[in-house]
Amino acid sequence: MSTSDTGAPVRAPLHLAVALDGVGWHPAARHDPDARVTDPASARHWVDLATTAERGLLDLVTVEDGPDSRNHALRVAALVAPSTTRIGLVPTVTATGTAPLAAALAALDHDSVGRAGWRLTTPADETRLPGDRALGTPAARARHAEQLDDLASAVAAVRLRWSAGGGAADRPPQGHPPVVALGHGWETFRLAARAADVVLTTPVDAFGAAAVVEQVREAEHHVGRTGPPLRILGDMVVLLEDTDLAARDRLDLLDAHEMLYSDAAVVATTPSGLADMLTAWQRSGLDGYRLRPARLPSDLDRITDELVPELQRRGAFRTAYDGSTLRDHLGLASWSRGARVEATVAS
User: Fold this and answer.
1) If you compute the radius of gyration of the chain from its CA atoms, what whole number of angstroms results?
2) What is the signed CA dihedral for 300, 327, 83, 93, rounded to 10 degrees?
3) Which of 41, 129, 248, 316 lies most in the core, judged by the most C-beta atoms within 10 Å?
4) Which distant-in-sequence residues (6+ apart) come within 8 Å of 43 by Cβ?
């Protein structure tokens, strides 16, 4: 355990990721008075965001898939790979078509020289089926469990293809690029324990974070996970300004255009205030965070230029990249071709 510049002990440095989606996670981000509205379909938009995140030494960026553009996230990740050198690139991809998916992710890992990951798209914890009167019916729960089983099987199939790769081009440089899953409850935590390397969670406070960590560890035990423990990251939407009042005013202004509804905590504060929150919640057992900037690029700029230096001063974040691959950044052991491929654990 290291100490900060105040002499206070801190845990291992945080893992930090950012979630990139259009011009920001707030649906009214374009209406922000300081918005630098760019075309989110342009190459420059995505390259600028990824290089800004890399300047902040972040572990990875995730890219959401477009609502009307299948494989948008994969294309964006491939687009920015040549313009970045260290940051992990993790597109959100639906697990359909095992062979082409394995090949596409392997190609991204080659293009980025070992920095690819894969964020699974997962069904919501509660699924409404045709004819259901309410969420959470037995039929809905059964369908949800079936979807999660299918997803775990798809991950196992992709990993087997990576391991068996018919040639060097089919074998990712990392062996197995990290898999990231978003979990909202017990069943999706079990999926993450069976199939993922990183689980994104959505606690709303420190007590909730501690409960989430306990539940994730219980899920790992329940499915008999034998690999390294999941890296547990807390998700939150962040809007950063010079003062708390200014941040809350900006959030209110955006909400007046269109209300933000989020599965994760919405935090409107200063970079220093956010650093206080991140380090406090870390004591609940979280390994780090995926921050969802409410406005792009302004909140990402503040994450890189103000939050990161504040965390570094506290000894809570890296001051340089220690490795070159995404597995390095996440502290995951290198995967060798001769390693045993974990089969999907029975539920």
Assistant:
1) 20
2) -80
3) 316
4) 79
For the ranges 46-50, 59-63, 76-80, 160-164, the lowest mean pLDDT is seen at 160-164
Which tokens sit at 161?
A: 């293809």
Rounded to whole angstroms, the Cα distance separating 173 from 335 reads 9
> Burial letters for 249-268: b for 16+ Cβ neighbours within 10 Å, e otherwise?
ebbeebeeeeebeeebbbbb
SS3 label, residue 241: coil
At 137 the pLDDT is: 79
Kindly tell me if the per-residue pLDDT of 7 is higher than 90. no
Exposure of 42 by Cβ count < 10 A (0-12 exposed, 13-18 middle, 19+ buried)? Answer: exposed
Alpha helices in 185-243 (DSSP H): 186-195, 206-223
Q: DSSP strand E in 49-168: where?
A: 60-63, 88-93, 118-120
Q: Which residues pair with 90 in a beta bridge?
A: 62
DSSP assignment of 11-22 equals: -SPPEEEEEE-T
Residues in the chain: 347
Tokens of 54: 């890399």
Query: CA nearest 125: which of 105, 111, 108, 140?
Result: 140
Mean pLDDT of 114-120: 97
Structural domains in the chain, sorted by start: 10-330 (3.20.20.30)
pTM of the predicted model as reported, rounded to 2 decimal places? 0.90
